[in-house]
Amino acid sequence: MPDLIRELLLHYRDLLRHLKHKLRNPDDAADIAQTTFAQVYQHALAAPGQASTIESPRALLFRTAHNLCIDQARHRQVVEAWSDERTALNPHPSAPSAEHMAAYRQLVERVVELLAQLPPRRREVYLLFRAHGHTQAEIAQRLNITEAAVAKHVVRATLDCARAFTELAEGLPVLIEPNAGSRGHPMLAEERA
């Protein structure tokens, strides 16, 4: 498994360069590159026996990134259509419900707890990357570590957060119901009233 991770990290710059050229947005490129690494790494963890059978880790990374780009484009189209429709139906949205605010506070508290539990260096790297928007190169230079180390910390922190959010989602009230809005768009629970 460590060999696979090393090999994946060797292709990070090529992947990021490719995504920046393709997307023409360095922030989106960095996000998709990170998500790509997280997905490939998580897949390798879930099926350790299959990790050694990956013939071309580079091809796997680029194919995964390509699929994520397509998913992102589709998601943006749906969000824009939903947002336009929602604005047309309700140009003056009401304040969030008490249930929504309580769930949001619980989510924020859990995020703070999760970040406090991360190893100090991982937390520092993750916050610089996600909260402050620094590039991996800037973080590497600032902390005097390699870009590969930055990528590793961000991937691991992302996986930690994903696991925590999965657990947290099970305990939160449902605030969005699929297929409840017009033409099958999701709708906030308080919009039904």
Automatic annotation (TrEMBL):
Keywords carried by this UniProt record: Sigma factor, Transcription, Transcription regulation
RNA polymerase sigma-70 region domain boundaries: 11-77
GO function terms (MF aspect): DNA binding; sigma factor activity
Single GO biological process annotation from the record: DNA-templated transcription initiation
InterPro entries named among the record's database cross-references: RNA_pol_sigma-70-like, RNA_pol_sigma-70_dom, RNA_pol_sigma70_r2, RNA_pol_sigma70_r4_t2, RNA_pol_sigma_r2, RNA_pol_sigma_r3/r4-like, WH-like_DNA-bd_sf
Domain RNA polymerase sigma factor 70 region 4 type: 110-157
Xref: PANTHER family: RNA POLYMERASE ECF-TYPE SIGMA FACTO, RNA POLYMERASE SIGMA FACTOR FECI-RELATED
NCBIfam families: sigma70-ECF
Sequence similarity: Belongs to the sigma-70 factor family. ECF subfamily.
The protein's name in its UniProt record: RNA polymerase sigma factor
Organism listed in the record: Aquabacterium soli
